[in-house]
Write a structure and sequence with these properties.
By secondary structure, the chain is mostly helical. It has 5 helices and 2 strands. Its cofactor is Mn(2+); Mg(2+).
């Protein structure tokens, strides 16, 4: 708990909350995570547009975790971890093998 980050954010219905371990964010840039999540349809959007079923947040989490795992195994990949290592004067190339866990949830309002 003492190593956890605490954030206060302004959110609205339809937002997707993405929680991940360092294994996710050491291997994927924030833009990549947002790109993967951006293909999902929220319950709010599905209802508003009559677009059928919303995207299961577990499927979004699985896609993000899978992308992070693939990147972690790539010995040539450029990663956020590698960028930070180089900034600190250390040599690191490729992905970073680590625990990779991702959980996603839609923010919905009760009716």
């Amino acid at each position: 708990p003492e190593d956890a980050d605490l954030y206060a954010l302004q959110m609205q219905e339809g937002d997707l909350v993405v929680l991940g371990t360092d294994g996710v964010f050491d291997n994927l840039y924030m833009q990549e995570v947002c790109e993967l999540a951006g293909h999902a349809t929220s319950p709010f959007e599905a209802k508003l547009l009559g677009a059928g079923q919303p995207t299961d947040p577990a499927k979004v989490a699985a896609a993000i975790a899978k992308a992070a795992f693939r990147r972690s195994m790539d010995r040539e990949a450029r990663t956020p971890f590698g960028d930070h290592a180089r900034q600190a004067g250390l040599y690191h190339t490729g992905g970073k093998m680590d625990d990779i866990t991702c959980v996603c949830a839609w923010l919905v309002l009760e009716e």
